[in-house]
Write the structure tokens for this entry.
Amino acid sequence: MSTPAIKIEHATKRFPGVLALDDAHLELRPGEIHALLGENGAGKSTLIKIITGVHEPTEGTVYVDGQPTVFKSPHDAMGAGIGAVHQERNLIPRFSVAENIMLEATPTRAGQVDYPEMRRQAQHWLAELDLDIDPDLPVHRLSVAQMQLLEIARALSLESKILLLDEPTASITDHEVQVLFTFLRKLKEKGVAILFVSHKLEEVFEICDRVTVLRDGRNACASVPIEELNRDRVVAHMVGRENALSDLGHRAEVDAPVKLELKDVSTVAGHKDINFTARKGEVLGFYGLVGAGRSELARALIGADKMSGGQVLIDGVEAKIPNVQTALRKYRMGYVSEDRKGDGLILAHSVAENIGVTIWHKIARLGGFVSDAMQRAAVGSYVDRLEVKTPSLRQRLGNLSGGNQQKVSVAKWLAAQTEILIIDEPTVGVDIRTKGYLHKLIWEVADTGVTVLVISSDMPEIVAVADRLIVMNEMAVVADLPNTRNYDEMSPRIMDAIVTSSSDYKESA
Amino acid sequence: MTATQLETDMSPPDRRGAAFKDMLSRLAKSAGLALVVGLLIFVFVNWADGFTGKFNLFNLTRNLSVAAVVGFGMMVVLALGHMNLALGSTALASVMIMGWVMKVAALPVPVAVGCGLAVGTFLGLINGWLIVKTKLHSFIITLATASMFLGAVLIVFRAGPISDLPREFTGISKTRYFGWVSGMLLITAVTGVVLGVMYKFTTLGRQMLATGANADAAELSGIPVNRAILIAHGLSGFLAALAGVMFTARQGSALLSTGEDWLLASFLAPLLGGTLLAGGYVSVLGAFLGAMLVGILQNGLVLIGVPDFWVEFVLGLTLLATVSLDRLREVISARRGN
Amino acid sequence: MKKQSLTQRFLAAEWSSLLIVALIMMAIMTIITPRFLNFDNQAILTRSLAPLLIVAFAQAIVIGIGQMNLAVGAIGGMVAVFFGGMMEVWGLPIPVAIGIGLLCGLAAGVLNGAVIAYSGINGFIVTLATLSIFKGLNLGVTKSIPFYEMPQALQWFGEARVGPFAMILIVPVICVVALAWFLKYSLAGRQILAVGGNAHAAGLAGISVNRVTIMAHAISGALAGIAGMLSVARLGVGQPTIGGDWLLASFAAPVIGGAILLGGHIPVIGTILGVLVIILIENLLVLYGVDPQYNEFFVGALILLAVGFNHWRSLRAEAAYKLQEGQA
């Protein structure tokens, strides 16, 4: 057997408060296409960043061609013949297509950038991918799919021995996927080692030779030949259903009046004719693939983005929600963002400030007077109730673990006594123990009469938690299913709703 | 049913002890600066001839009280992560109009001062409005308005400074306590206390800090972010005008050079005092101590015979040294944390 | 893709509107004051244009990486007095003085860049601090007294004319052409723009962001130094006040020309036209005998107009793009 192009042993990566990788293994051979699978937050991106020199592992060793190697920077990894297409866009906005493709290997002649040669080489890689793009076009004029293909062309242009593709097909059409696959097979024959990360299992079964699955930073399986697997077994590895969730017990059926109703709502973000109802005290689950438009709908609902048509009824009365203040103060709606660091929490401020932010206007006396003591008194009970593990209410929130941060995210809306609470990806980046706790909390909150809308990409989670399921796909509601809480029963129904509603499926039918 | 049934094995954290430590570390931030200021005073008292002279101290406290208000004016926009380069021109416009009302329109002094402060507030609101509407960086907006305000004043007040302001007005700067403390220090102290109370004890202050720390999160938490920005810039304009009024009282005339050299000083005081350029954290006491450091340094250096020309050099070095040390401390504590 | 006609391509260029503004201004000035086209007036105009052009690019290159250099004026002033002092006090020949002055500006820029790159402190604070350090150095050394005894050759160069143009205009012409070549055709220049456009992506592509930061500030410092020395030639005196009033114009010209403070784009022609428009306003005021200090107001208003216009244009472009997407 040939020496593996890349071998990773016992890789562990710790970030403050998060264990992103926990003793992970990977072996990538020359001339193979190796699938790296796992749910969001399973550690795939961290593993890729270790291979590309963005992160150094806290523990463990990376072997390149059998030699233990430490990459200090992306430049080192590139020097070792590793090319990568990352999940986030990495293009230079004002540069042309050709300049972006040749960014790492800009051709020069006599110290000058050789534009004709650059254009010629770029054209060659575009042709290899069957792309009809003008190499002189600035990249901000391209469509999202074109940008994605461009990044692939750029990775190919390095003629790397090792190629990492992180979700390369996320936003491209079936035809483009086929062109890419043809090319990847050619590279494979040339002996290039390819690591392929995708959420789309059909693609994995179509092109990959071996499979590694990560779950919670560990190997659910390592380098298993694809013949030994089938779709169900891969899914089982990914979600680890047998031990992922504690039993939440029984929950009584909700038979309260309707709290929230959407009638033919469309948004500036692109939603069309969204209809659903949610009862008082109900847990309504929203499932869909990344890009199905769930978070965007939530943002429109709380007034952070604009709606362009339709009606929202709260307690049977039409509600106009022009901004977040109205949503919070008049309609008592709250939104726990999936992006805690970005727009969910103020990590540089204290625990007390982060919970108090929604209630300052309520606890204030005499023209806006709020003392620290008043704030602590108002929020303290929520910190206790949710068992936020913090040395003090004055603690900087950024110093707490992901799970405790998430508890604070929920606490601030509980403190505001919201009647409609939207929780986006409640357990992303949260350890298993806290995960079960948060699920239980969602039920407790609903038991107090709050309407909870839970958005999740984690199918086992949504099936366990929700009373009813709204399935979304391509910015539309495609199914409204009663939830039996039986995963084997629900998962085919959900997938079926998504597959039959996809535009690709409709075209082929 | 309560959540407390879960995870009962965790002992309740020792909150009181942690809170005490927390308070100490907050105090320590200003304490370091206070120590430096104290050291400086000790050095100058012993080695700078005339430093302890009553008139010198009076002059020092008078300059310092103006500088601190200028620093506050920048601090309130730094809280948002913004800047206000128009601080000096705003002050200029305010005092010229105040001077005109006082001298030419011959209205009572309080009315004139009120007009000046109103003009400053209004100009600040213009800045805030432009920033909210265009969503452009406050640097470029206030750079542009700075020159527009300045240019407009130069055009309108072609005739030059307005001198011989009424004694009733200039008297503000002549009051002394104990024979050496300027009465204007009282204005500064009151302003500082009001600002401190605003940030620590009011909804508005907290909203401004939340906006500065993470505007997106603040918005999604139901904070009227645009209103917070507008008010903070209005406040900045008000404080600029107030500093201008105090400066004018000291000079006895509304000068066209008012605010011309405030840029460095306005940033120095809050930044030395630990206010973050990125927004979300301010220290009123720190800004005051920062202004004190600058004022004492300027005064003392000249007294020990350092030529006037080198003072700015020393101030620049001080700023660079302070931010570098702060940064170093951050890096070290981050390493220890891991 | 269809080939566009020359007119279409002209109108598509970001500097076309600015050029039209400049041309209209010149036309109006020619009509109302025939003195405008006078060779003497043109010489005055180009003489004040020369140093400012270099100053604008000293700022533009730092804006290109998404930072600011508040110290351009201070570096310019410091190099100017060193330049004057070297010739008057030490009697150094002009070329040697120029060489040392250039190195001095470069070193100041490297200092800025290195502190920013390795400490991670915001460039605004660092250059604010070095602004006072360099200015303090300038005043401390000269005690605010200018160096008057400049060599004959330098004074001749500062006053000479070629037709309607001031001789000193040759320096910015060389600098701008060199810079334009550098940004377009050298790897280092491309790296500066790449880092400004997307520092994260540039880092992943193996470009050292720290090295690029230092390089951009070094070039900025060198250009500021050249502008300072050119001002000495123009004034015939080593004035310590040189550079004191550069800050506004240094930002105004690139911003009017279409630069974005986030970085990634250095509009060469736009910046030149931006400087031209600023100088035209100043010239107009001079011709009317108005105090040129009023210039401030108009330059400030111009910045607001330009950013407002660019904001409106980008909104419109976005709307057009969305429409196009919707149809596709």
Q: What stands out?
A: Chain A has three domains: 6-239, 249-332+419-430+453-508, 342-417. Chain A touches chain B through 49 residues (CB under 8 Å). The CA atoms of residues 53 and 74 of chain A lie 5 Å apart.
